[in-house]
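Go through this chain.

——
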Amino acid sequence: MPEQREVAQFLEENGMTAPPAYRLLDLAAEVGEVAADAAKSSEYGDEPDSLSVPEDELGDALFALLALAEELETDAGEALATSLSKYEARIDANGDAGSGA
């Protein structure tokens, strides 16, 4: 995935490599910010049509996810392909992509 390589290069050039545990915490924090923006903009779900999330916040979460994948030495593109295959198999078997859990 070219985006993952771009993130990896950015991390290396800026001395920002970190253990996966720290990357996971950063990802959780960034996704939390996305959720907070969504909650506030939609009046905590009372006005779902007004939900909005700033693009830069989504970008921060994506950066954190790709940085985690890089630190785990996982190809994000391959991981996505695996997930899509899993969801397609579930839809074929059950008519739904959910795990049933």
DSSP finds four helices and no strands in the chain. Helices lie at 2-13, 20-41, 55-71, 76-94.
